Amino acid sequence: MLERIPGFRKAATPDDRFDLIRAYLRLLGPATPKHVADYLDAPVKDVQARWPADAVEVAVDGEPRWLLAGDERALASADAEGCRLLGPFDLFLQAKDRSTLMPDAALAKELWPVLGRPGAVLVDGELVGTWRPRKSGRAFTVAVRPWRRLDPATRDAVAEQAERLAAYRGVSLTGVDFGD
Fold this sequence. Notes:
Elements: H1 20-28, H2 33-40, H3 44-49, E1 55-60, E2 63-68, H4 72-76, E3 83-86, H5 98-101, H6 105-111, E4 119-123, E5 126-136, E6 139-146, H7 152-169, E7 173-177
Parallel strand pairs: 6-7
Antiparallel strand pairs: 1-2, 3-4, 4-5, 5-6
């Protein structure tokens, strides 16, 4: 339900946090003007006309892209270790440049189908499979479809993430099905 915020006062001018191009670069960059335009459903020339002055060029797989200068150090020092079960519409999966996340076209089609999108298994910064919740009565399982063989430590980490998901949903996890 939308309601007025008591005491809300409109700003005289919007600040940078309301700039959609800056938001895209901060949340989904490095990116090109075309990536941003596709995401916003806007003409590339309009995006280029409003391109932030503090965007710096970086190379991603040999292609020029841009990110905000203030985010360059954070990106360079980012720690990509660990395991996460990303929800189907997690921001990480929403960028328009899907081929950087998943260069294999068949696996990309599995991860981003037209209907019934699965979640993604992210391990050490790499997408390694998909997952789907399965609930039947009181039984809650997580079905994982790995795209490569997962070592025992990774399987344990996926199971730990499934436990966290079950706890968040207020149910008990009855198992993780790795399809083997």
